[in-house]
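Per reviewer request, we include the raw input and output of the structure prediction for the construct analysed in the revised manuscript.
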Amino acid sequence: MRAAISFNGRRRPVYWTNPRVCEALDGYFAVRLAHGHGVTAWRSQWRGLVQLGPVFLTNDGRPFSLTTRNTGAGNTSRSCESLTQVIRKLHDQAGIEAAGATAARRTFGVRLHRKGYDLRHIREVLGLATLSAAKALCDGDPVDLGRIAARVL
């Protein structure tokens, strides 16, 4: 993800590895190509689409607009309310209450930590600025006290 479009202005990798997500993206890119949204004259390029262009476009083929906010101390944040609404709707349809991108990132980071990945890698994958931010995120892992008690008893 380019720094210019990320929430916190930090560049970070995005990994599309889930087979169902990859299948959905394949379908989405095919629709974009069929509608001529974000295409290039060089069909030999990546799927016939502009390689460094936005991944997601509006229904009429334009990039989503971002809102930039000054968060103080010279920091800015970026957001796209229309995409946020789509994500909220998907969470609602899946029966996930009060979920959002922040909760998803936290869940992903905690799961990586539980599997034994170090904070340096978690920080890099999530695009966090510091190791202390990764530590704070992972320290917030809810603990199953019943499971711990069962091990002792």
